[in-house]
Batch of 2 targets.
Target 1
Amino acid sequence: EVILSVRDLTASIDGNPILKGVNFEVKAGEVHAIMGLNGSGKSTFSKALAGHPAYEVTGGTVIYKGQNLLEMEPEERALNGIFLAFQYPMEIPGVSNLDFLRVAYNSRRKHEGLEEIDTFDFEDLVQEKLDIVKMDASFLERSLNEGFSGGEKKRNEILQMALLEPSLAILDETDSGLDIDALKIVANGVNQLATPENGTILITHYQRLLDYIEPDYVHVMAAGRIIRTGGKELALELESRGYDWLLEEEAVEV
Ligand code: ADP
Ligand code: MG
Ligand code: MG
């Protein structure tokens, strides 16, 4: 079953073409890693999929579970099961983490025609999910992301993901300067939450992350295109040889 199908996607920022024809497909049960040098367009790709208003899609098609994703508002994309960590506000003073999670969870339920979850049932459910990220319950009473450490923000992202059970999770780790603990949290979360029914896109320039996650496919993005796709061995080769040889083989100008 195909979850996401991207064909010849082009996108611009402020009129500058960044994505220059991305082709990409995710089937149920697959974990895809997208790697590449800084500035290759990885975050632009994830933001275009999220529907970020600054990223103008200028061509191509994106089909998500049989629907035209490009016609969906960013909120609709989330309600239909696309999870993008960065779409959530960084800090919301005065809103507890628990309240925020409940609102997000209930919007999803409402969209599926279900009633709001009982407050106590929700707390039980969250408690269960806290174990996945090894977080203490006191964490839930804190203001959303206010004063969270990098590792706590990561844990919270994975907690959101565990609750929302997305059909397609897109994790862009590139700019977050993850330490080894945060890497392991992300890796554990991905490993536990990847199921035969959903798909995961892991954007990273850290080969290290792939020491903890076994992706089904590794893609290399350069100059706004996916220039090569392979298995885990491709990531290992990039680690030992760098990117230059590949850019040369594919005649990519960067
Ligand atoms: P990556 O995530 O692979 O490092 P990005 O998608 O962030 O790459 O960036 C791709 C290109 O788009 C870079 O040349 C970057 O400078 C440019 N770019 C990214 N965001 C913006 C922006 N908001 N305005 C203008 N140019 C941008
Ligand atoms: Mg799997
Ligand atoms: Mg990036």
Note: The helical segments are 42-50, 74-79, 97-111, 119-133, 150-164, 180-193, 232-241, 244-249.
Target 2
Amino acid sequence: MTPLPTADLASTPTDWPATATMADTASISAVAGTIGLAADADRAVLARELSIVVPTFNESANVAELTRRLGETLRGIAWELVFVDDDSPDRTAEAVRRLSQQDARVRVIQRIGRRGLSSACVEGVLATSAPFVAVMDADLQHDERLLPAMLQALGKGGLDIAIGSRYVDGGQIGEWDEQRALISRLATRVSHAVVPAALKDPMSGFFMIRREAFMDRVHSLSALGFKILVDLFASGTQPLRFVELPYEFRARHAGQSKLDSHVAWDYGMLLIDKLIGRWIPARFVSFGLIGSAGVIVHMAVLAALFKPGLVSFQLGQALAAAVAMVFNFFVNNLLTYRDQRLRGARLLRGLASFMLVCSVGAVANVGVAQFLFSHEQGWVPAALIGIVVAAVWNFATSSFYTWGRRSG
Ligand code: GDD
Ligand code: MN
């Protein structure tokens, strides 16, 4: 067979008959394969230098503009872009799919029944393949023009991660009000319990990492909450070799920030997980703290009903326990299981299963304490052990039956 001249192949799509059958197409590919062109073309698509991962929640008005700007800035670089969307009500995932139809380098991972910036980033990175991976926000607050400099810094070797920083010379926090700037500084100071003090902007959500450095620590990430960079620095055995590159944090392009007051709780849980998570899961700490608040609720209800003589002690106890359980359920759903929060019908089913689990826990609590007390243990250790047994039971069982199976 006479090999086709290259020029012909390049112009083939429009020259092919509109009615080309599958067999025609197959034979054309076979010809191209024989002369080695298709194989090279495939490889060109596969050899990505840079993957960009963007977590999204309600960012439909930003994804097209971000994609356009990345295309402009990254000319000459083989890149891929993955949005990880938590089933945004504004149909961000659909908006990304429309972009994918125009540009195969763009994709979406749509997670259902899940929330969380960090876990979204981790799953996005794992779904990509380039030797360097950048993580950035969708709202254009992170200056995409920094990416080539980050890639260059890492490409030279000797570094694991390049971080877009607001707190090194030349960096700016943009239009933040004094309160948010203060909170950010405070969070940065606290982070130094788990990350190197030399890192000026550990709160940054904008960085590029060598894939190998990421893979080395991915199994020890907590993936809780918002602060993936703190998590990366505080995980793994080898310290990350880093550089911080200044940029100006811009104003949000469209839509609203997802940062709310619960982010502080998430952040606390991340730090606890990094400090003691090896021995006690952070979720159990959260569960225990909320349980302690539940004891106060119990006592308050009991005092309000029993003291004025409205009900007997026994009925007062039962009512107080029920109110405390409802309280614990809702607060745990809000904080401990924020990333897999139950809503709608699942909320009511969850409440029922939680109350069932905790009722068994209460019986176990009294039973264990009674047993120990009758075996010559002091009343204080007997009662405390009863509480611990019930807490562990409630946590383990409700994390499975009420909030579904999870690892940490
Ligand atoms: N998949 C997913 N799931 N994405 C989320 C979620 C979530 O639960 N919450 C927020 N996002 C996405 C947003 O859509 C956005 O693209 C990005 O994560 C950052 O969220 P913003 O709501 O814009 O956060 P911010 O601007 O207040 O804070 C950002 O900047 C800080 C300073 O650099 C974040 O990057 C922080 O991590 C960072 O500390
Ligand atoms: Mn933002």
Note: Residues 137, 139, 141, 252, 257 surround manganese (II) ion (ligand 2) (CB under 6 Å).
